[in-house]
Structure prediction request, 511 residues.
Amino acid sequence: MPVCHTEADVFKVASGIAQKAEVNAKNPYIYKKSLDARRKNDIHFVYSVVMEAECTDEKLPSGISVFEKTENFEILRKTSSKKVLVVGSGPAGLFAAYILTLGGADVTLIERGSTVDIRQKEVQRFWNTGILNPECNIQFGEGGAGTFSDGKLNTRIGSKLQGFVLKTFVENGAPKEIMYDSKPHIGTDILAVCVKNIREKIKKQGGQVLFDTCLTDLIVKDGKITGAVLNNSSYIDFDSIILAPGHSSRDTYKMLAEHGVYMEQKPFAAGVRIEHKREFINKMQYGEGDEKEFLPSADYRLVHNGENRSVYSFCMCPGGVVVNASSEQECLCVNGMSEHARMSENSNSALVVTVRPEDFDGESPLAGVEFQRKYERAAYALCCGKGPAQLARDFVKNRVSDAFDGVKPSFTGQTEFADLRECLPQFIADTLSEGLGEFEKKIKGFVTGGAILTGVEMRTSAPLRIKRDENFESVSHKGLFPCGEGAGYAGGIMSAAVDGIKVAQKILEIE
Prediction:
């Protein structure tokens, strides 16, 4: 389809193809939609449309094929009331609790942060004043860290559960387009509504949801976890605990280590955020022309494989902002966020470098946490809490910037020019500099056109994995089911939600 078209146009063309093939088809719906922008002089959308038809021909004409429906995901329903504590209301914990309540379990979902409405106010207060609430921020609160993101739902895991996750989001406020877009996203504004609606369904189905409630200790008897201490005061017992803490629950990691829960170091990635004018990225990807204004804000994916390290774009936010995503006092980390419309002045992406366990200091499973913390503290100290910023071309030339060049930072707080190399490991700084030089060759102006770097980005994923067996249960402690991104088993909203569903289903299966 051409750039400018309507859904009715799509169905008209699809019906015309069927009629030409003498196939009597009806009830069309869009199954897949993607944008083909490989040739700037021939940008178009590609659709797959499913229609119902009676056709006796064994050989269908070109352009038409038989569509075989995949099996619908069926929730395992049990008559018993298994008592389960779910820790964390990010996508993994939220979907785990949702499935468990549908399956008949007695569920208590706890979240150390506040409801999404209160959380939005706390985050805005932090951005305006610099006063951080360590228990309720971009990392902690209803919906998890993904609530303040672009709300991307694309993943490479290839699970049949993805359709269920998409359908659940649509049923709870997300636009229907996520069901068929090749790169579905919800946006932070709509995602906040979705998680709130899912929470209410959990409650309606009999689940209990407790906010401002932190898991502070575990009760262990004969190698099995049987209870938990909440907020250092109250106690709750259960049959199983799903631990979906998110990748920033560093105090939870420490508590688990003290109990001897088996964890292992895991690679992650770290670097900076880069931002350009949204119109610049659009022009680079689409070219020029009147019809280009009807195209969605453009994204990009860049990779450079150096001799020893890789540098790549990550979590690209078209028409978004760079946010202060800190969760600890006197630490500073950044992330990206977009609303559903993706129409902010700038577009941003993380530029990150592979970090391996051998880069950590020591053999402790918490060594990766300390690696992150070290450079977040350095970033905070570098500009006394302001966001350290540097023009990309000055970073490559190893000099401090003195003025912005057309692109102004969208950072949610104050920024200050600094040498970002002072708050990055040398191997990351050197690899970033090399990668930026290569990216400039691929997209002219990517570095030299006034692009801004803001640092540091350290929370791309968990720096450890809470080891579990084939039944999703901890290899060292019975009754503990590590889950989601914070446990080291997912890498985004979709994969975390799918992991939560799998763990919940397994618990319902266990007699």
Remarks:
- The chain has eleven helices and 21 strands.
- The first helix runs from residue 7 to 20.
- The two ends are 53 Å apart (CA to CA).
- The CA atoms of residues 109 and 291 lie 48 Å apart.
